[in-house]
Amino acid sequence: MKKVCAVISSLLVPTLLTSCGNNNSVVRSQTEQTVITLSWWGNDIRNEYTIEAVSVFEKLHPDIKVKCSYSEWSGYEARSRMQMISGTEADVMQINFDWISEYSPDGTGYYDLDRVGHILDLSNYSEEFLEYGVSGGTLNAIPIAMNSETIYINKTVFDSLGLDMPRTWDDIFETAEKLRGENMYLLSGASKSIWLYAITYAEQVSDKKFIENDKIAFGEEELKIMIEFYKKLVDGNVIPQVEFFGKDDIDNGRVAGNIAWISDAQNYFGNIIEDGTEMAVADYTAFSPEDSGVGWYAKPATMYAISKNTEHPEEAAILLDYLVNSPEMAELQGVEKGIPISTSARQHLDKIGKLSGLQYEASLKMEGNEKISKMHPLMEESELIEGYISACNLLIYGKADADGATKELLELFKPYM
What is the DSSP letter of 284? Predict the structure, then answer.
């Protein structure tokens, strides 16, 4: 497989449009300024450093004023959808990878970034990375960092119990059985994480790709493998059912590991690491260590785009270039959104000693694995994920056998095949 990831080596603030620069820092005449807008999602930490970064940006560019809209992920997409329909979206906006195929299938849903290439320094990105933001031959978005599902293990717990890091499927189930006596699951994960883990397993068993030519290539046999695998994970004490997942499962001693995105490492484990818990990154599970990475996928952690309706494309490009390439933003953001793809941003983080920690280790493991594939947006389709979990529960609760649950899931999948 083609190598996807090349190494380039406090309360929540309510969502409303507000100026997030320091208005007292520079004396300006409003008539001399161009006002542009910026939107993003994230937790309090992300909000705080982005607000500070915008304040610095306004000092560097006193002729540009930035108004910000931000919130947690919940509701952000629905609000952004309505704004894009009405043409009132932010000039510069954080978008999810699958938004490109959903909102810009022909490349006209966002601004063509090549038109501002004289401002936005695209030389910091390889063509391979830029390709993630291309639709219909048009560069619609810039990836900030790369992401993949990763297995994180509480090494402190493993060492205390004399357990080895799991590498193969056999290791996973054998270790989970040993943890049963400790009243701990081996892993936990949100619905999407377990869904992708099941795809990995089914791809390895069947030697067949989940997506081929932009359509789902799995048939009834492969879907049945995925459904039975979920039940095997639950019955084997590997995971609790996804309905009972909590991001603090490791904190409360319920599990000894998590399946989570690279970009979630700090959010999930930052507090317990500060308290002295040692976390480690396990290999990508496979039937043999040599196949680690087969059936696993990578995608941009998040992206920035410019609105197709912007009245100030050059000023928006100045802000976008600052967000992805500047040393000021790189220093404030650190690795909170993942390890930056931008060469200049990464070099600055390396220079100031910020390329370290669990998230960096997970990113290096992803980047160094040539067997990881490029994720297709269909793999994050919520209807498919929810349908899969529902079909698995039919089997879990005895409301259908594996064949019956598979046939029901197959009906949902047919429009995507």
Answer: P
pTM of structure: 0.85
Average per-residue pLDDT in the chain? 91
How far apart, in Å, are the Cα atoms of 162 and each of 155, 156, 157, 178, 358?
10, 10, 9, 11, 22
- For 297, the 3-state DSSP assignment is strand
Report whether pLDDT(72) > 90: no
Is residue 280 pLDDT above 80, yes or no?
yes
Burial of 35 (0-12, 13-18, 19+ CB in 10 A): middle
In the structure, what pLDDT confidence band is assigned to residue 338 with cuts at 50, 70 and 90? confident
Contact 299, 132 (CB under 8 A): yes
Q: What is the pLDDT of residue 31?
A: 52
Which amino acid is located at 20 in the chain?
Answer: C
Superfamily of domain 18-145+301-367: Periplasmic binding protein-like II (3.40.190.10)
**Gap between the Cα atoms of 341 and 343, Å rounded:** 6
CB 91 within 8 A of CB 66: no
Q: Which residue has the higher pLDDT, 5 or 191?
A: 191
Of 290, 320, 275, 22, nearest in space to 154 by CA:
275
* Main-chain phi, psi angles of 330, to 5 degrees: -60, -40
Q: Which two tokens stand for residue 58?
A: 């306004």
**CA neighbor of 153 nearest in space, from 358, 329, 402:** 358
Architecture category of domain 147-297+373-416 in CATH:
3-Layer(aba) Sandwich (3.40)
Task: Return the bridge partners of 141, or none.
Answer: 305
- Enter the DSSP assignment of 399: S
